[in-house]
Amino acid sequence: MNELAIRxxxxxxxxxxxxxxxxxxxxxxxxxxxxxxxxxxxEWMRMVRPWSFPWKIGGFFYALIPALxxxxxxxxxxxxxxxxxxxxxxxxxxxxxxxxxxRKIGGPKLATxxxxxxxxxxxxxxxxxxxxxxxxxxxxxxxxxxxxxLGAVMAFLAQGGDLFESWMKRRAGVKDSSNILxxxxxxxxxxDGLMVVAVAAAALSWVNLL
Length: 210
Hints:
Elements: H1 3-24, H2 26-48, H3 53-76, H4 80-104, E1 109-111, E2 115-119, H5 120-141, H6 147-172, H7 187-206
Antiparallel strand pairs: 1-2
Helix pairs in contact: 1-2, 2-3, 3-4, 3-7, 4-5, 4-6, 4-7, 5-6, 6-7
């Protein structure tokens, strides 16, 4: 089986698990979030092992805060289930849009020293896809009108999270955060943008802006 097929099957499986656990809620969602957070911290520690002690402490909170944000949104926020799916859709659309635009359009690089493959076209492609996907879900789920434009903003934040992890990997001298996901690398590689979006969405919801 070629790498693309393995990557596709693994991607579909991860999405299916995320959707099932989110819809089920309760312990199923909590266990999924806790498991992802634990994996992210483990991968973080693998990369920063020779670094200074504050990086090790910082990684604990970097993994914990998005996990708590997702749990709070799912169980405490208004329209929590719909908002979690909005977070997922915006993040997934960002990745897809950035990849497609980067491949089809190319052009100037976004951050050559951090991630040589990322382009400015990919940044805007991700923002467009996230804005569109977030708006369509907001319309379907009956969410507020602000969701029709916030998707693009969240995509910008998601790609910031992606670049931060890319910087960490470059400094650590590794290609992926780990190799536990066939064709995808590590858990951190897959949720680096989602973690940032989850915190931002939870914070806005907390202050009644979402």
